[in-house]
Structures are given as structure tokens and as C-alpha cells.
């Protein structure tokens, strides 16, 4: 099975050499049914805008041009995507999908044109490849679905050849019963497309220029019209409302989970995992419910991820355990580590073999060498923690002086007693011990004991204050 198309994380995908094709992506509509200020195509599926999914899939064809038709909130869309081979054309008034393609017409120079919809994000490289490889004058990606409500219906002649596409609003009762729907995705002979676009009318309920009318035009001119089916059960689903967006998100996530499971990952409940990017798992990885993976996440072999863990752009090496409710962002976790529960690991953190980072420990831009431990309630920022160091409960690196950040260096085999403050910049020499409750402001030489706290006194006849009566 081909991978779910998500190339944000530079996953290797097969690029198809299809140089004589231009792609037009329709993205000018407001998306009224989304009830949002944001343009519809910028809403996110699996952590990536709908339009970006479509652009990434289009790129796999290696087309000569990718032209995005924008209109509603076009500035916001244009500024997000500035890279070639993308070009934008404006559709000032959204007069329909046919009118939208017509705006790009003058830019079409290849022999065939593939038309994609910005609100059909899960379309897969294999499907557009099939469509582009079809020799028909007009090829349409169609699908037979349980519930065709809202989609254009494919009307065929008695001999089965596609005759026309009728939109739901214009369909009669019999036509509405047709369950074969138009995905909105076409590949058309460019010369014919231009001719058809010139002839479009808006004689329909919406008073719009429908791209779908080109099927009837082609059929009338005895041009060849073919239909091609997508392979994935949800790939042709369009997003028109928040409900459809959420449904498609679950479709996408379930498929992603199934593919991980097929490759050997144990997932407690495939309905309760979210991958917003790319998750790569080694053998014997097990993931409990409610976990979220964002960006590019790589898990090595024999890794246990307990419930409700969030991991973003990180690597976790073999035989490590991430306990429940931990957050790991921009980190490289070594092998045989034990993280959490409730650990927060922030960007720039790197741990070596057998490190332990326990509950309510926050670590930022720090390194932990082999066997280093910070088991409870600590903040470690901009620090170098040596091998076999024990960071006691409640220890804090005071790395920020209100203006600048400073480094704390803790050399190998240091024991930091509980509730220590290390005021950076500061170095604790190898093998030293810091007594509990100390505030360390000066470098500590190796091998001794540093202690900075007031001596304990005892007042034998101490009376506790009592409540004053009014
Ligand atoms: C369209 C198809 C329908 C198909 C469905 C598949 C037509 C007439 N209908 O209906 O047959 O079943 O998609 O999802 O083509 N757009 C523009 N400019 C416009 C109008 C739309 O750029 O003037 C863009 C929208 O931003 C959107 C896409 O085209 O990304 C589809 O438009 P939408 O209004 O959602 O069409 P549907 O009613 O879903
Ligand atoms: Ca739509």
C-alpha cells in the first residue's frame, strides 16, 4: 500500500515523471459552511492545512506548473506558499468551479491539465497518477459511496458511458438515487478544456459556472470520457463543514494507525491516536491511548509509550519507556531511558543511555549523560549534567538573571541534595556533593561537600501564635 501522503517531514515519496501536465488547484471559495473567518483551505487536517495536503500530492506528479486559484482571503494563502513551481491566479468573484478553472486557462501550456480541489485533501498520489495516465479526453475520479448527499452525481447512458454530472441541487429524485459521485477531480485534454470553459453557462440552481458541465460537453461531441476510482475509502471526501473536517481527521488517523499496526506497532486503540506529521516506529513499539505525535517523530525498538503522551519533532532510542502524561518536544532521548510520568522535556534536550527524568521535571536545552537522574520536581535549563549524577527533588537551575540565560555544568558523579538552587553560571566539580537546601552561587571544586544554609537552631519554649478574639 502506498504511504498516506504527508511529505512535510521529508518522507521519501515516489515522484512520478509526468512533465507534460499542468495542475490547477481550486481554492478561491470562502467555505461558508465552515462558519469561520479563516479560508476553508487553511483549516488543518492532521496538523497541516487542507491546501498543503493537495499541493504536496500534486508535487508527486512533477508537473510543469501548479496553479492555485485563490480569491477569498487570498493574501493569507499566498504568503504561506511562496515556493516554485507554485503560481497563483486570482478569481475575484467566486462564480463557480468552472469559472475558477477559466482564470487559470491562459497559463495552461501542457497537453493535459489535472484539476484538484483545495477542499479534498486526502487524495493520494496513486489516484492522480492513474487519472493522469488515462488517455481519455476527459477523465474523472468517481466513487460509489453509501451516502452521496451533497456531491455531484455521475449520470451514465444505458451502455454505461458517462453522460453528465448533475449537482445535488439540480438533480431530480431518480438522479439523486445515484450513488456514484464526482470527487471533483479531473484530468482533461488542455485544448478541449479551454474550448469547453469558453462555452460554460450558469443555467443551474446556484447560477454558477460549473466545471462539471464539461462531461456533458465532451459526451455531446463524442469525445472519450472515462472514470477512474480512488483506492482509499476516504480519499475523495470533501471538507465543507467542521463536522466533515472532524470526520475526515478520524478517517485519516484510523488509516495511519492501521498502517502502523500492519508494520508491527502495537496500538491499544487505533481510534485514540493522532499523528500530525510522520511517526516512524521500530519493532515492538507499544502506544497506549490518547497519544499525539507531531512533526517528525522517530521511535526506536522496544519502546513503551504510556497514555496521553505528546511527542513533537523528537527521537527516542531503543528500550526506553515514556510514562503517562509526558510532553517531549525537540528532544533526543537515549536508549533505556525512563521518562515521566508528567515529565516536560523541551527543545534542545539530549539524554544518553539509562537517563531517568521523573515526574514534574522540566528540562530545557540540556544534556544528561549516561545514568544521570532527575527523578522529582525539578527545573533544569541550559545545563550539562554529567554521568551518574543524581539531581535531588526540587532542584532548580536558576539560569535566567532577568536579562540573559547562563549555563550550569554538573560534572560526573555529583550528588545534588534536594531543594538546591544552582545560580548560573556555575560549575559543580566531579564527585562533589551539594547538601540539601543549598543555594550554590560559586563554582564547587571536585570531590568535596558544598553546603550553604543557615545552621539549625532550637527554641525550646516556643509558643505558637494564637488567634486573637475580637
Ligand atoms: C464540487 C463539485 C461536485 C463534487 C464536489 C466534490 C462542482 C460544480 N461541483 O461541489 O460535483 O461532488 O465538489 O467535493 O464542481 N471554488 C473556487 N471558486 C469558485 C467555487 C469553488 O475556487 O468559484 C473552489 C472551492 O474553494 C473548493 C472547490 O472549488 O475548494 C470546490 O468548491 P465547492 O463549492 O466546495 O464545491 P462542492 O459544492 O463541494
Ligand atoms: Ca466541496
Write up this protein.
Strand 8 (153-156) and strand 9 (162-166) form a beta hairpin. 16% of the residues lie in helices and 31% in strands. It contains 8 helices and 37 strands. The chain is elongated. Bound molecules: uridine-diphosphate-N-acetylglucosamine and calcium ion. Calcium ion (CA) binds at residues 119, 238, 240.
SSE layout and pairings?
Layout: E1 21-27, E2 44-45, E3 48-49, H1 50-59, E4 65-70, H2 74-80, E5 86-90, H3 97-104, E6 112-117, H4 125-133, E7 138-144, E8 153-156, E9 162-166, H5 173-176, E10 180-189, H6 190-199, H7 213-220, E11 225-228, H8 242-262, E12 266-267, E13 273-281, E14 286-287, E15 291-299, E16 304-305, E17 310-312, E18 315-316, E19 321-322, E20 327-329, E21 331-333, E22 338-339, E23 344-345, E24 349-351, E25 356-364, E26 367-368, E27 373-381, E28 383-385, E29 390-391, E30 396-398, E31 408-410, E32 415-416, E33 421-423, E34 426-428, E35 433-434, E36 439-440, E37 449-450
Parallel strand pairs: 1-4, 1-6, 4-5, 7-11, 12-14, 13-15, 14-16, 15-17, 15-18, 16-19, 17-20, 18-21, 19-22, 20-23, 21-24, 22-25, 23-25, 24-26, 25-27, 26-28, 27-29, 28-31, 29-32, 30-33, 31-34, 32-35, 33-36, 35-37
Antiparallel strand pairs: 2-3, 6-10, 7-10, 8-9
Residues 119, 238, 240 line the site of calcium ion (CA).
CA(first)-CA(last) distance: 81 Å
Radius of gyration, in Å, reads 30 Å
Assign an overall shape. elongated
Quick one: CATH class of the largest domain? Alpha Beta
Helix content: 10-25%
User: Structural class, from helix and strand content?
Assistant: alpha/beta
**Proper CATH architecture of the largest domain:** Alpha-Beta Complex
Low-confidence stretches: 6-13
Strand segment count: 37
